[in-house]
Structure formats: C-alpha cells, structure tokens
Amino acid sequence: MVRLGERSDTCDTEGVVVTGADASDLSAERVRAALTRFTGEIDQVPPMHSAVRHEGRHLYELARAGEEVVREPRRVTIYSAELVDFRPGAIAEAEIVVVSGKGAYMRVLAADLGDALGTGGLLGWLSRTSYGTLGLSSSITLDEFEALDHPWLALLPPDVAVAHLPLVNLGPAQVQQLRRGQSVWLPRSILPDIAGECRMHDPTGEMIGIGELNGGLLRPTKVLAG
Asked: What domains lie within the chain, and their CATH numbers?
C-alpha cells in the first residue's frame, strides 16, 4: 500500500516520515494514469537504506553513519502495476498489485509514484503474494504449523522453488564431480537445448543443485548437501 502525501528517508514507514504535499485532489484515475509510467523496463535509484554495496560497504551502513553517496540507477522490469483500491484524503492510500522482475524496489516505486503525482509517497506496507512458482496458496499459517507433529512436514521439496528453471538429468559420475564443485562437459547425447541457469537432478530424480550451462559445460553454482 502506498501512502501519498508523505515522504520518508527510507521510502517506507521505518524511516523519518515527513509531510509531503496535500493529496486531497488526487483521484484513482490520476493514480492509475501515473502508474503507466512505471511499467516495462524502468530505471530505479537504490535507496540509501538498502543492501547494495558502495566501495565494499552496504549502503545501509553508510546511511546509519549519516553518509549519503551518489547511486547509479539500475534497470529493472515491472511487468504490471494495477491499482486495486484507492482511499482519498490529505494523505491518500493506494493499494497496488505489482508483478516485477528481480531487483525491483517497491519502496522506490512508491516514492517515485508520489513524486510523479507531486505529493510525495512512501510504502505503507508490503505483502509478497508470490515468488516464482511459490504462492500464498502453498503456504500455511503459524497455527497450522504449530499443530504439526513434526515441523519438517511443512517443508516443500527444494526443486519446487526453482521449478521454472530448465531441467538437466545427470549420470552418477557427473553428479559426483558436481558435488565436489567441479564443472563437467555434457555429452551431446544428453545435452539439453538450453543455455544459462538450470536445475540439476541425479538419476533418481533428486535435485542436487543449480548450475550454469554454457556451450556444453555445466558449472555448479549452488550444490545441495548430499
């Protein structure tokens, strides 16, 4: 939810919140029209209160020390930004459903939207409804978790989180090398028609990790304990 008519040094309610311009004249139509500027590939400047590094230090460390540095904008993708509810007022509230690529800051989107509307804005609250193939429908509540006989019963198989990645099936010898952190050349007989990030499975179908495939060379990037 975006609060229009306020600003914050962290772009959300965790920082120092100050009054922006009166948002009483805003309407749902104006907010919806402004949102169209923030879909597709856009540039965002990372906030000072973020984990981005500058000369080896996290920006949030510099911010806590009272320092501010110039940050280069980063290109991110906002696939869609839909206004689903709007509550007018001097401090207006806009509930927005966003589908984005990796690296996008919802705090920055809120602040940039407020600037575009001339009122200032900050992120009031954020709820992540899905990540990759995972969604709220596959989650359980804390009460349901506490009612389980064993906590591990709540765990999903690790490959569920990366089901969107192409699959590479491997033989025993290749699995052994990859578990040692070694890259392997895949023979043409099993070389999949893919390139880039992939999930690696052993002959039993168990996921052993994530790798990077380039020209037939499979390099392990994350290997699960065997």
From this structure: 2-127 (3.30.2350.10), 165-223 (2.30.130.10)
Q: What are phi and psi of 135, to 5 degrees?
A: -145, 175
The predicted model scores a pTM of 0.73
Of how many residues is the chain composed? 226
Q: What's the token pair of residue 49? A: 């209160």
Q: Which of 50, 27, 33, 15 is nearest to 124 (CA)?
A: 15
Instruction: Look at residue 58 and give its three-state secondary structure.
Output: strand
pLDDT in tens, 77-118: 999 999 999 999 999 999 999 999 988 999 999 999 999 999
Instruction: Express each pLDDT in 67-86 by its tens digit.
Output: 778 888 999 999 999 999 99
Q: Is 184 helix (H, G, I), strand (E, B) or coil?
A: strand
